[in-house]
Amino acid sequence: MKYEAVTIKDIARELGLSTSTVSRALRDSYEISPETKKLVLEYAEKINYRPNPIALSLKEKRTRSIGIVVAEIANSFFSQIINGIESIAYDKGYNVIITQSHESFERELINVQYLASRSIDGLLISLASETRDLSHLKHLHERGYPIVFFDRIVDEINTHKVIVDNTKGGYDATTHLIKSGFKNIAALANAAYLSITRDRIGGYQAALEEHKMKQDPSLIKYCLHGGLVYEEVEQALDSLFKQKKKPDAIFAAADKLTTNCLRYFKAKGIRVPEDIAVIGFSNIDLTELLSPSLSVVRQPAFEMGQVATELLLNLIESKRPVKDFDTRMLQPDLFIRESTSRKNSSL
């Protein structure tokens, strides 16, 4: 038997009332007597009546739903962001539709087109690492569609954005390695053109420059898919360890890059921190329980999701076109653990 939801017509027929009377009673209209309201509401509760969201969206010209595009839900950073998004959205009466790009431009394009076709009220997006063509997002934005970028942002579209101080994160991580006595520090990063990569590698380079350490471009390796494809990480690390002067420490500038570094070292029998030190960007909750425990730059992911959602809902619910936009920058935290244990150093 096909499921059929209870409608206002069903309530009206059962109670011997008109559909307009039932509708007004459910909306608590002053035109309906308290007795009739009580009758309708009690019966609606008894049969578990819920308003039709499609009908409501047609009436209000709103679906009260927002869309999310992230690289990968299994990534702890993005899952924490989604939790932050939902904590605000559901409190404000909005549903959330989550999609994954898996770092693919094609998937991101399909996801954005699908969400827009569902008439969602707004979009929260962190760009896929393959995305360089922004025309699909520019087209929506030019039509007044509410969009907020988080984590991976772009300069070309003028809207609200939420980021972490990635430059500081890269600088703090590298400075810690320098002060711990490491001399040949490599960096493993996402696609070079992503905003997070530019800023994190910029912080890494600023720390080397400040401490008058030679900057060697061959010590910086980029992985297009940010660690989602293990073979890219393996190839990058193979290249680093084939160099005449091998790195004694690695700054991994993304969550998946960090964990895949550890996977690579275990497979190759490379000891951490005895043979090489590792510090990375990671929001995995169990980094302190690894052996050795992992030094990390941790991002306020849950807060990022909350802030991005609040900004998006402000765009959606604004009575006038919004022309002034904010870029909110949150601060990362540095956690020092065993994977960067200090070497003998005069620093």
Arrangement of strands in the largest sheet? 2-1-3-4-5-11
- Euclidean distance between termini CA atoms: 76 Å
Number of strands: 12
Mean pLDDT score: 91
What structural class is derived from the secondary structure elements? Answer: alpha/beta
Question: Strand content of the residues, in percent?
Answer: 5-15%
Gyration radius from CA atoms, angstroms:
26 Å
* Helix coverage percent: 40-55%
Number of domains: 3
Oligomer: single chain
Indicate the CATH class of the largest domain.
Alpha Beta
CATH architecture of the largest domain: 3-Layer(aba) Sandwich
What fold name stands as the CATH topology of the largest domain? Rossmann fold
Biggest β-sheet: count, sense, barrel? 6 strands, parallel
Q: Please mark out the parts with pLDDT under 50 across 5 or more consecutive residues, or reply none.
A: none
Shape: elongated
**Individual helix count:** 12
- SSE series: HHHHEHEHEHEEHEHEHEHEEHEE
- By CATH, the superfamily of the largest domain comes out as Response regulator
Pfam families: LacI (PF00356), Peripla_BP_3 (PF13377)
GO molecular function: DNA-binding transcription factor activity; transcription cis-regulatory region binding
Organism: Sediminibacterium goheungense
Domain HTH lacI-type: 6-60
Would you give an account of this structure?
The chain is an alpha/beta fold and 347 residues long. The chain is 42% helix and 15% strand. The protein has three domains: 8-51, 434 Repressor (Amino-terminal Domain) (Orthogonal Bundle); 65-164 and 301-331, 3-Layer(aba) Sandwich (Rossmann fold), CATH 3.40.50.2300; 166-298 and 334-340, Rossmann fold. It is built from twelve helices and twelve strands. The strands form two sheets. It has a six-stranded parallel beta sheet, sandwiched between helices. Strands 7-6-8-9-10-12 form a six-stranded mixed beta sheet, sandwiched between helices. α1 packs across α2 (19-26) and α5 crosses α12. The radius of gyration is 26 Å and the shape is elongated.
